[in-house]
Design a protein that fits this description.
This protein has about 450 residues and is mainly β. The chain has a single domain, classed as membrane protein fhac: a member of the omp85/tpsb transporter family (Porin). The protein is built from three helices and 21 strands. The chain has a 16-stranded antiparallel β-sheet. The longest helix has about 35 residues. The termini are far apart.
Length: about 450
């Protein structure tokens, strides 16, 4: 009997070892092919340090691969520099091409400042420029034009999931965000924040969460963002050129302790977007938006380094007679809101959204078992995130209508902190199926 028990124990240990081996291989493949790719599109917060030491400079130059619904299997290359052209800034350029006929050239700069500035006011002004040149084949757009649904508004809350048009074409945009840091709260005496981070966790230097008073806590910004976007769609059911250009005007109170990965505090943004109908614009429109997120720290345990409850509320309303294009304004679906639906699956004149996440950072880090991968990616922690979301769009902002027949999403994600970058892979389920969203940063960031 003893020999039989030992034999069964040996078999169990062998099967467990094989299971862990295959699990490690699967996780390693995902990590290397997926998560490493996402590191290329990250934008770290200015002035933070790693392991208590200054780390304001670095260069990223590598090829990578990924998969999503628009590109298919894609190959790409990225070049990025942190601490260039100024210590607090970063620049990035990446190009990619996929098996579904899609290609993109994308570039951004973050926290740039005017050179040769002598005015104290100019010291508080930051610029975030972004541009994208994108060509795609067989892209689904949830706009009117599908002859199978002549009496239904595509993208409306009760619209059919097959009510979309498909076409080839270009989608190009450019915008630059001018951010002026107000001399209040944590921005009064410290223009460039400096976070002391050890093993991926904030040790000191929090810039928010001290109180609910913006005069004493957090960093407050006035924002102006000129934007331009043009689309050319050529399909069986729709063909044409569309363009929008205008200005975003906003106020942003960032009262989070550590914006890349908050554990306490909140953020509040008020924004109005206007297309004045000038130049080659397809029409004028105005949309107002409000977003509020809140974070509660649940503390550490024997198994978890950090536990955080995160909540987000967002709403939008069209203030003009004309509606905004389907890809902006009151839209839901895609990377940020209602992640179980395709991008811009729902669009109308008004929208509301609620999201909740439980963010858990275990003490266990599987990358420590893979030194060759860890040498390249430098993963300091992983995070498991179950989440739920509800929301809907409507033809007008009405509190009763917006809270009836709401769409829901539930899912879970894995997030990684590596070399000061946060990347995520979320699996989300909805009434219309499931979707995998891969992106940088938490979805509740602005």
């Amino acid at each position: 009997m003893l020999e039989s028990s030992n034999h069964l124990a040996n078999i169990s240990q062998l099967l467990l070892a094989k299971f862990r081996h295959h699990l490690n291989r699967a996780f390693r493949s995902l990590a290397y092919c997926g998560l490493v790719a996402l590191l290329t599109i990250a934008s770290p917060e200015v002035g933070h340090s790693a392991d208590g030491e200054a780390s304001s400079q670095g260069t990223l130059s590598l090829p990578y691969g990924f998969y999503n619904e628009n590109f298919g299997l894609a190959g790409a290359y990225v070049y990025a520099r942190i601490g260039y052209p100024q210590p607090q800034s970063m620049v990035l350029v990446t190009g990619m091409a996929g098996t579904q006929g899609a290609g993109m050239l994308f570039g951004l700069g973050q926290n740039l400042r005017f050179p040769g500035r002598r005015s104290a006011n100019l010291n508080r002004l930051f610029l975030d420029p972004v541009f994208s040149i994108n060509y795609s084949e067989d892209i689904d757009a949830f706009v009117n034009g599908n002859p199978s649904f002549p009496d239904e508004d595509a993208g409306s809350n009760n619209s059919d999931k097959d009510n979309f048009v498909t076409g080839d074409g270009w989608d190009n945009f450019f915008r630059v965000n001018f951010k002026y840091l107000l001399p209040i709260g944590h921005g009064r005496n410290q223009i460039i924040p400096r976070y002391d981070v050890k093993h991926g966790m904030l040790v000191s230097g929090a810039t928010g969460g001290a109180s609910f008073n913006p005069l004493t806590s957090g960093r407050s910004f006035v924002e102006l963002r000129p934007f331009y976007r043009s689309q050319e769609i050529d399909g069986n059911d729709i063909s044409g050129d569309f363009a929008t250009n205008g200005l975003d005007i906003g106020l942003f109170w960032d009262n989070r302790d550590f914006p890349p990965n908050p554990s306490t505090g909140q953020g509040l943004r008020l924004k109005a977007s206007t297309d004045f109908g000038l130049l080659d614009s397809s029409g004028s429109w105005t949309v107002a938006q409000l977003e509020f997120d809140q974070y509660f720290s649940l503390g550490a345990t024997d198994r978890f380094r950090q536990r955080v409850l995160a909540f987000d509320f967002w709403t939008a309303d069209t203030l003009s007679d004309n509606s905004a294009p389907a890809y902006t304004g009151a839209t839901l679906g895609g990377l940020w809101k209602l992640r179980g639906y395709p991008s811009q699956r729902f669009n109308d004149r008004a929208a509301i959204y609620y999201g909740a996440e439980l963010r858990l950072i275990p003490k266990w880090n599987p990358f420590d078992s893979w030194p060759k991968i860890q040498k390249h990616v430098g993963v300091e922690w992983i995070q498991f995130v179950p989440f739920v979301e509800v929301g809907r769009v409507a033809p007008s902002w009405n509190v009763d209508e917006l809270h009836s027949d709401m769409k829901w999403v539930a899912g879970g994600g894995i997030r990684v902190w590596a070399k000061g970058f946060l990347v995520r892979v979320d699996l989300a389920f909805s009434e219309e199926g499931a979707g995998i969203q891969m992106m940088v940063g938490h979805p509740f960031q602005f």
